[in-house]
From TrEMBL:
This is Pirin family protein. Residues 147-234 form the Quercetin 2,3-dioxygenase C-terminal cupin domain. The keyword Iron applies. It comes from the Bacteria. Keywords: Iron, Metal-binding. Signal peptide: none annotated. PANTHER family: QUERCETIN 2,3-DIOXYGENASE. Residues 10-119 form the Pirin N-terminal domain.
Amino acid sequence: MRIVRRSGERGHVDAGWLDSRHTFSFGHYHDPAWMGFGPLRVINEDRVAPGGGFPPHRHANMEILSYVISGALAHRDSTGSSGVLRPGEVQWMSAGSGIEHSEYNGSDSEPVHFLQIWIMPDRGDPPPGYAQRVFDPAKRQGRWAALASPDGADGSLAIRQQAWLHGTRLGEGERVEHTLDPSRLYWLHLVQGAVVVDGEPLAAGDAIGVSGEPGHLQITGQGDGTADLLLFDLPP
């Protein structure tokens, strides 16, 4: 089975300093049809104005990934971890038994555009954790690269769930495939650009969810720009 989530159908919040699009129900946006996809609970596309940010707030038992598209995202948390995330980097924060953190625009002149991703963990109340890693975009041009995995294989970030996050970048006509396991769930999110997935055109912000299917996903880049894609391989 396949479902398509169009960018324009997502929830929308405009708070002045924050413009956010919600793939799944989040905060004041609630749609019973879009409560998540397996353990994938949140994909928010956030644009934060200079000087803006999320003040300190608390989470527990959630794996949180941040993926910067443009600009700089600054982070602080109650474990003492801090950092500034830029394009090509991915941040992992495991809320574990409880953590207080803040995310804010790391520039006083440019907006920051990023994805906030939440994945439910497969265990409860571990110690909080934090890491960020640089992933060279050239190493995922026309091929998949592991960005997050259960064991940190191939230089990926280790997360507390039997889930993998893969990334690729495609120019016009470039093509990648991914083998489907019918016992797993797959969520393909197009961050930027345009692609065709098994005949289905996707624009930036669109996504496709796949469940119970054998075979392959076949993805081809379209248009003049570079398509940036994230593929979540998830347990049911």
